[in-house]
């Protein structure tokens, strides 16, 4: 096919996405070029995926080297890259056992299945209820989308899997009222991503852990978006003083190569005996080799320490911008997972700001219709931050001017 355009998408693809008119063809670091040769600053990071930016040499080398050795063997065998990556994750987190998949949705599917299996093994089949939170997001399989607390993603797919209850995020009383000895797990994002970049109170997170302990329920942290240095720690649970029983990881874990992981303790992992769960491509050598290279780059003190400083720098610039335009209620988030919540006058217009900023030369995201989301490369430079924010400011100016 010689020339593709946005129109080609409408001709050949199922219409479940509505991509931008711009078609990216090349990326390097925090910069992207489209098919017309126009350059953009990438503040979107492939939705918090490209933690090292585009085409990082360590990733390219890892992929190229592994591609010349071994691509796929199936889980009838194990392989060196998978074992090496699992060891890195175990050495740096609470986890004692790892399961690999291909995406965040698959990592969560495994986490939720394991939570039910563990409860069934240890307490009986009636202990199967999962409690999650409104505005949560955990993936697009029927199980994970049902645990996610957003009705718009489940409409038309009924009947949904049962035994799932939703309560208000950051409301401990609501959880207290819902949790019981039939609860097998409480599932939460340490920072709600799709729900609007909502950072809960530390006391809430600690309270969730205590309630889980009281009711013999597992605490499952979905760190698909918050994991791998995104918040300035390797995983966001490390900020909270709370340790989950199961953690899901994906997105930045592969830096752009599809891979997911479920991390857990030895005690909980025992319920996944041979044959209980699997994945054809999960733990394949290509994905694990790339993810190991990504891990080594992110897990450097100089990289992680810069994340909080960049958060502060961007926050100050956004608030200065806001003094001029008055479009934001607040800037929230942690590290380089940031949300600028729109003021009352601009409710529902996040997409307008996103489109206007794209036209001015920067890629940003939405987290719902009322929040602009930024999740750039952890390695983005101050100069690139300035260029991206200048494009955002021009975009805001255009939207405000009408």
Please explain how this structure is put together:
- The model has no long low-confidence stretch (mean pLDDT 97).
- The protein has two domains: 6-56 and 301-401, Aspartate Aminotransferase, domain 1 (Alpha-Beta Complex); 58-298, Type I PLP-dependent aspartate aminotransferase-like (Major domain) (Aspartate Aminotransferase, domain 2, 3-Layer(aba) Sandwich), CATH 3.40.640.10.
- The relative contact order is 0.16.
- Helix 8 links the parallel strand 7 and strand 8.
- The strands form three sheets. A seven-stranded mixed beta sheet has the order 4-10-9-8-7-5-6, sandwiched between helices. It has a four-stranded mixed beta sheet with strand order 1-2-3-13.
- The chain has helices at residues 6-12, 45-48, 57-67, 80-92, 104-123, 142-147, 172-178, 202-214, 266-269, 285-298, 301-325, 350-359, 382-401, and strands at residues 24-28, 31-34, 39-42, 97-101, 129-133, 164-167, 183-188, 218-222, 246-249, 260-264, 328-334, 337-342, 362-363, 365-366, 371-374.
- The protein starts with 5 loop residues before the first helix and ends with a helix.
- The chain has 402 residues and is α/β, with parallel strands linked by helices.
- N(2)-acetyl-L-ornithine binds at residues 140, 279.
What's this, in brief?
Helix content is 38%, strand content 17%.
Number of domains: 2
CATH superfamily of the largest domain: Type I PLP-dependent aspartate aminotransferase-like (Major domain)
Radius of gyration: 21 Å
Please provide the ordered H/E string of secondary-structure elements.
Answer: HEEEHHHEHEHEHEHEEEHHHEEHEEEH
Largest sheet: 7 strands, mixed
Mean pLDDT: 97
- SSE class: alpha/beta
Q: How much β-strand is present in the residues?
A: 15-25%
The CATH class assignment of the largest domain is Alpha Beta
DSSP summary: helix tally:
13
Query: What is the CATH topology assignment of the largest domain?
Result: Aspartate Aminotransferase, domain 2
Helix content: 25-40%
Tell me the number of strands.
15
In the CATH classification, which architecture of the largest domain applies?
3-Layer(aba) Sandwich
The strands making up the biggest β-sheet line up spatially as 4-10-9-8-7-5-6
Shape: globular
**Uncertain spans:** none
Compute the separation of the termini in Å: 39 Å
